[in-house]
Amino acid sequence: QVQLVESGGGLVQAGGSLRLSCAASGRICRMNAMAWYRQAPGKQRELVATITSGGTTNYADSVKGRSTISRDNAKNTVYLQMNSLKPEDTAVYYCKINNWGQDYWGQGTQVTVSS
Questions:
Q1: How far apart are alpha carbons 69 and 40 in whole angstroms?
Q2: Chain-centroid distance, C-alpha 70
Q3: Rg value, the chain, Cα
Q4: How many CB atoms neighbour CB 54 within 10 A?
């Protein structure tokens, strides 16, 4: 089994920054892709950013230029640094790992940005 534990969410004022972390444990394939998603109240879950095992990244247009996804393969951990946060960034943020062809999700961490 694979478990993902997210941390780093919280309440921040607009313009502030947060760094989310997601640690994976279990039988982890080194050639995996990791990603961050978010889901705001009343909205569908949306992709925020992805990173391959080799470090190739992609971002949603809504966060491009303000966020950076990174990973520490030795720690099986993925990070999401978010800067210049906006109220519309308020959501529950989830990490996902595609491990041996199967998707695993974390429990989510709440990010609230006040105006």
A1: 20
A2: 10
A3: 13
A4: 8
For the chain, what is the largest distance between any 2 Cα atoms, rounded to a whole number of angstroms?
Answer: 42
Q: Tens digits of per-residue pLDDT, 43-100?
A: 999 999 999 999 999 999 999 999 999 999 999 999 999 999 999 999 999 999 998 8
Judged on CB neighbours under 10 Å (0-12, 13-18, 19+), 16 is middle
Which residue(s) pair with 92 in the sheet? 39, 110
Please name which of 98, 106, 86, 4 lies closest in space to residue 45, comparing C-alpha atoms.
106
Cα distances from 39 to residues 29, 31, 36, 53, 72, in angstroms, run 27, 27, 10, 25, 25
82 within 8 A of 63, measured Cβ to Cβ? yes
**Residue 79 has which token pair?**
């990070």
C-beta atoms surrounding 92 within 10 Å: 18
Q: Look at residue 68 in the predicted model and tell me its pLDDT.
A: 98
